[in-house]
Amino acid sequence: MACRTICQLLQRRLASSATSVRLSAAEVRGRRSAVFSREQARQRSLYPRTEKIEVTLQIPGLQGTLLVMNKGLSTPHSCARHLTEWYVTSSALALVDGKPWSLHQPLTQSCSLSLLTFKDTDPLLVNQAYWRSCAALLGQVLLDAFKEDFSVELLRLPEVLVTSGAFCCDVVLDPQLDAWNPSEESLRSLTRGAQQLIHRDLPWEPLEVAPPVALEVFSHSSDTHLRCVFIHVYGTHTHSCLTLYLSLRCGDHVLLSGGPLVARTGLCSQYEVTAIHPLGEGKWGLHRRAQGLSLPLQQQAHHTVWRKLRSRAEKLVEVPTGSTNEAISDTLTLPSAPEQTPPHTPQQ
């Protein structure tokens, strides 16, 4: 009963924020980043004195090596810097006591640590984090792609299997763009935006927060993705924490993610936005699914292979209705999308 009351209060607060004076995209990003930084500083202040923890490496060739690190400050990336440059540049994800862990998430107790790369014998967890990261990058590009006159709202980042052939992110564009179908040049423009972020080699910095803090982060805009997530979280796990990711010095974007991302944007290599499919009218307008294809820095594909992969990634990825940022089952299919002749692309 209390959970339902909290959910109703949240929905009212979200509704009131949606009817408030609309801020520019830059102002929204600035305010989100400010709340993120404040909460990050608060969490770091929980460790006023330097306390030491023991980190036991579970890495081939370094099995059992003990590192003495700082509690609440040191991260798996900090540990990698005590090893060789190869671990710093190649590590994409960590396992802390067997749990997937961002390279930039502080360690809060003595633990075992594994550093994962794309060349591991079983790269499943790394591949999942990479696909999730590519989708987050695509969402960030879409939020920056249009002029201030056009609103862009991120609905969700569906967590699909790598074998689906494409990562995706669902958005609602400004109603003025309902008749727009992206041309090949529009897709290339979005691809260039992603490649610029990749070239900057920016870290994805995680921050685990309670839902009320996340609500404050997103309270300055009518973010429909946040509404979906909060209603789901408060309706099922009253005491759950959410993880926010901030890509520093890149427009100060803050986003919600269903799991850890890889260490930095520079781990992406070949990256292309392949399609934006209309999904039909939804509660907040015309829903669209943007899709893309990418390979990490440590893996490259010949241009003939890439063309085949790209052709597959253009097809609509079906995501079961009602799923949020949770991994979907192997019932996911790739039906062929009908060919469309896109009209003139609006100025971006």
From TrEMBL:
CDD domains: TGS_ThrRS. GO terms for molecular function: nucleotide binding. The gene is mrpl39. Residues 321-334 have a biased composition (Polar residues). InterPro entries: Beta-grasp_dom_sf, Thr/Ala-tRNA-synth_IIc_edit. This is Mitochondrial ribosomal protein L39. Residues 320-348 are annotated as: Disordered. It comes from Oncorhynchus kisutch.
